[in-house]
């Protein structure tokens, strides 16, 4: 596939605070957590948790999130802790579809000003471009790409959780919200060609098929939706160009902070690794520059291209192990290695042990 339309850029701020405590959100090592998401991402969390016999406020406290998350949709909270909260709730409820239950009743309004902008775009194509371009206003840890080729469109989503944690629940919510955005522009009978998840299938597909139809599949190389390219030209009968221009200004005001080069490179690495194209020249091309500029900018931020790639690979490897059931040959390909032997050498260099012996 080719023809990248947009790449979302997360802001990667480090001066983030918990408004309840007025202290920075920090990880276990004391380092500030750098990516945030609007607490609207937890819409319906309390309802679903309560229905499953869980105490939503107690769960929030366990992961270090303020109770205000349940009342203030615009509170910015760490994406890492939101992901941990969702995974913990799903495990406690013994419900792999916990996130989907939250997403069933989501509306565009849950995306705040971004939802208003998407609602008033003239076509599905322009709505997707707006969503992709500005998604980090809602979630700084999310990357989205739209690729068009051969009459098909692939809309890929990725979440940069870090620390190897599983983000299965958050990804399923994200894909479900994207699906609802697409259906806003299409008829009620519209179905995508495919709804893809990289993780393994749950024990029951009842809710997934109820929400997505029978086109949902698991174990793919990416998370996202495949549809017909002709769908992108579907007109929006309720588009309001005046409101769209106004809302676009509001959204752009929220994007004044510039992302670091390391964050921009990281996003591309995550998206290019499974395709086997993760080279500094390719990344530089997508950034509209050359490899020397990329190297110089990363050096100024105290890192390098190889260091970013290594960090991403370590985090993704930890996530695949946390999800379980992935053959090492598949993991090697998803981490961008051309052969299992190359993955084995890298693993021994990083961890001092063979990949097949890890976790024993």
Features:
44% helix, alpha+beta, Arc Repressor Mutant, subunit A, single chain, disordered N terminus, five-stranded mixed β-sheet, two-stranded antiparallel ribbon, globular, 360 residues
Description:
The protein has helices spanning 45-51, 56-63, 79-93, 98-103, 113-119, 124-134, 168-185, 206-212, 241-253, 261-272, 280-286, 291-300, 305-323, 328-334, 340-351, and strands spanning 17-18, 23-24, 36-38, 76-78, 142-149, 152-159, 194-197, 216-218, 223-228. By secondary structure, the chain is an alpha+beta fold. The protein has a five-stranded mixed beta sheet with strand order 5-6-9-7-8. α2 (56-63) packs across α3, α10 (261-272) packs across α13 and α14 crosses α15 (340-351). The longest helix is centred in the last third of the chain and has 19 residues, at 305-323.
Quick rundown:
By secondary structure, this protein is of the alpha+beta class. The chain has helices at 45-51, 56-63, 79-93, 98-103, 113-119, 124-134, 168-185, 206-212, 241-253, 261-272, 280-286, 291-300, 305-323, 328-334, 340-351; strands spanning 17-18, 23-24, 36-38, 76-78, 142-149, 152-159, 194-197, 216-218, 223-228. The chain has 2 domains: 17-250, no CATH class; 261-357, Homeodomain-like (Arc Repressor Mutant, subunit A, Orthogonal Bundle).
